[in-house]
Specification:
The protein is α+β, with helices and mostly antiparallel strands and 513 residues long. The protein is built from 14 helices and 21 strands. Strands 1, 2, 3, 4, 5, 6, 7, 8 and 9 form a 9-stranded mixed β-sheet that branches. Strands 11, 12, 17, 18, 19 and 20 form a 6-stranded mixed β-sheet that branches.
Length: 513
């Protein structure tokens, strides 16, 4: 159903944004015509046409009481439990909030800039307002035209979430009521769960750079070798101060999760259960007060050092954040330890996981098993800068899962491993594996790809560390997906023949042997 001509002609908008339906798609409504049109003045932010005044028009089905908007529908909108159900087709315009739409091309422009040039949402909003947001239309609007940092972030998360749901063949539903900043939380959490371990679109990737065919002296193929690297990089999101606790914080500014919130008013010296006294974070013990005064002075000196380090560094990310606990005293918010990545030797990132405490062999073992839940999926050669320690751990636990896998110290770090470490020299140094070299003595794989990838990945520290844990994980996974798409395109241009392996067939063949 269209609006009457006299009403449409009175509205001054560059575009009229209608829902995709004119009749209710619910079969029980038997094609009921949609009516009761409501129009809302809005702004459309575009990549090439600037900011345009538009009208968002919604239509209602009188039978099922569902109101259809340009991007989504809402059944029983006045109900506190009502949900926004987004259409399967994302469409050209993304409905960020009641009066804001962003063009899909602009959303892609933003996410590509964030991924490849590490542009922050603040910088992107500022650049858009300075140049791209200029429009030549004579139409005016009473709404503000300036794009804000919050709009850029909302657009990024919603657009990425819509594409993720479309790829996974899932209908996106979010609460219709409530705070905008938390509207997507449940959907983002579910998307994170689907992505964890094996969820990256390029999980089954292979190409001529990471998978090699080995031939005998007559040139006949006798097998394959497949190389991957795991390594940790320091980023971190805020987390509960209680060790090993993974319960999300209510706010990134909190020090404790809801389950341990009672510890907030306790003395911050480890083991002390006395209440703290404002403005101190310690109890009234003279010894503890001295510790706090000393810690504050150290904290000021450390902040000055880090500021100087950031100015000197090209990428603006400090290589170390320093110890957060001084003399057993917890002085600042707690952050997770590191992000663990697994990367094929061509540069495609297979998976990511947050380590809350440390990059120890037990944590790495658990992470690798979640990444490769079947032995047939593990690369034949696994490079790791601390491969010898992992090797010792696996042998001590007599785990047959890794029997067919060769744990190798990457070439770069092998030079710093002691010649006196008999276990390392006998099992993990790369020179022990002749198949890793070509006939002319060159290395088959780029085992330093993790160090190179960490340069790109580590810059996200300043952007991601103040996000909630849900948004933090979604953001990093999305950055990896976008970079993987670009990486596969580059591999194809270099005639490295990227493809996706049939993992079911590989596992079946493994079981039949």
């Amino acid at each position: 159903m269209l609006l009457p001509y006299d009403l449409i002609s009175s509205l001054k908008g560059a575009e009229m944004l209608y829902p995709p339906h004119r009749r209710c798609p619910d079969p029980t409504c038997q094609g009921s015509k949609l009516g009761n049109a409501v129009y809302v003045e809005a702004r459309l932010y575009t990549l090439h046409r600037g900011v345009l005044p538009v009208y968002s028009i919604s239509l209602n089905c009188s039978k099922c009481n569902t109101r259809y908007h340009p991007n989504h529908s809402v059944t029983n909108p006045k109900s506190p439990a009502s949900q926004r159900q987004f259409y399967a087709d994302v469409g050209p315009y993304i409905h960020i909030n009641t009066t804001v739409f962003l063009e899909d091309q602009l959303c892609e422009f933003f996410e590509q800039n964030i991924c490849h040039s590490h542009s922050s949402s603040t910088i992107l909003a500022r650049l858009y307002n300075l140049r791209l947001g200029r429009t030549h239309t004579t139409l005016t609007s009473t709404l503000k035209e300036e794009l804000t940092q919050e709009m850029v972030l909302d657009a990024f998360f919603l657009y990425a979430l819509l594409r993720r749901c479309q790829r996974d063949n899932i209908v996106l539903c979010v609460p219709h009521h409530g705070q905008q900043e938390h509207r997507l939380d449940d959907a983002l959490h579910d998307a994170n769960q689907r992505m964890a371990g094996t969820g990256q679109p390029q999980y089954a990737h292979a190409c001529d750079q990471c998978l090699k065919v080995i031939s005998d002296n007559n040139g006949e193929p006798i097998g394959i070798i497949h190389g991957g690297v795991t390594d940790g990089v320091t980023l971190g999101h805020t987390c509960c101060r209680v060790k090993h606790c993974k319960v999300p914080l209510r706010s990134v500014k909190d020090w404790y999760c809801p389950e341990h919130l009672s510890l907030t008013d306790k003395c911050h010296v480890d083991g002390c259960i006395q209440p703290s006294e404002a403005p101190y974070i310690m109890c009234n013990s003279p010894e503890h007060r001295v510790l706090e005064d000393e810690a504050r002075q150290r904290q000021i000196a450390k902040s000055q050092h880090l500021d100087e380090q950031r100015r000197l560094q090209k990428d603006g990310v400090p290589t170390a954040s320093g110890k957060r606990d001084i003399h057993g005293m917890k002085f600042t918010r707690n952050y997770t330890h590191n992000e663990q990545l697994f990367i094929f030797c061509c540069g495609v990132i297979v998976s990511r996981c947050t380590f809350f405490v440390a990059e120890g062999p037990e944590s790495v073992n658990e992470y690798l098993k979640r990444t490769f839940p079947h032995p047939a999926l593990i690369p034949t050669h696994l490079f790791y800068d601390n491969a010898c320690t992992l090797w010792k751990f696996l042998r001590a636990h007599n785990d047959p899962y890794w029997d067919a896998i060769r744990l190798v110290v990457d070439v770069f770090h092998s030079h710093v491993h002691s010649d006196e470490d008999d276990v390392c020299q006998a099992n993990c140094v790369p020179t022990l594996f002749p198949e890793l070299k070509t006939a002319d003595g060159k290395w088959q794989f780029n085992s330093s790809i993790a160090e190179q990838t960490n340069v790109w990945f580590g810059v996200f520290q300043s952007m991601a560390r103040e996000l909630s844990s849900i948004r933090y994980n979604f953001f990093l996974d999305e950055m990896i997906s976008i970079r993987n798409e670009w990486m596969v395109e580059q591999l194809a241009k270099k005639q490295q023949h990227p493809w996706l392996r049939d993992l079911d067939a590989i596992m079946k063949e493994y079981e039949e042997k």
